Amino acid sequence: MRIFRLSLLLLGAVQVSVSTEISVSLDDRRFFLPSAYLNKLYFISRATFASFGLARATCESARGYVAEIDNLVELIFLENFLTRSDVAKVYVAGTDAAFDGRWVSQRTGATRNVFDWSDGEPNNFNGQEECIELIKSRQSRMNDIVCNNPLERPNVLCEIDLF
């Protein structure tokens, strides 16, 4: 339970207490132990996925979405989270399917502006790599990946807004 307290000074002291309870239930058979950062909860699937669509559905089934990296501090947190995990690579939000080199969120369509690409990436190999993964062996940096490829099979990094 998180308790937020706000103190106001108006011709004397007035104290207002607001209590909110945040409850998130994750099936530990489907997800590794989560980690919280600011107002977000992040968790990685135990399963690997042959397509971004299946990965996305897994996050949504837990009332979340594929992690969207909004700023440099969040990126560093997520790179460290992956580095400490037991998985090799994870899908994160971002696609340039509509226009090569213009990365947007699959969920909202908002432009993605924060990147930490591995050397030589994004390379759009064979003109088919339109999704993003973080790869642990590359210091958890980004790689563009085919969105539907049964040979790759990354896990997925999910995100839930806590408040």
TrEMBL record:
Keyword entries, A-Z: Signal
Protein name (record): Perlucin-like
N-terminal signal peptide: 1-19
UniProt xrefs under InterPro entries: C-type_lectin-like, C-type_lectin-like/link_sf, CTDL_fold
Domain C-type lectin, chain residue ranges per copy: 37-148
Lineage, broadest ranks: Eukaryota, Metazoa, Spiralia, Lophotrochozoa, Mollusca
Organism superkingdom: Eukaryota
Matches recorded under SUPFAM superfamilies: C-type lectin-like
CDD domains per the UniProt record, alphabetical: CLECT
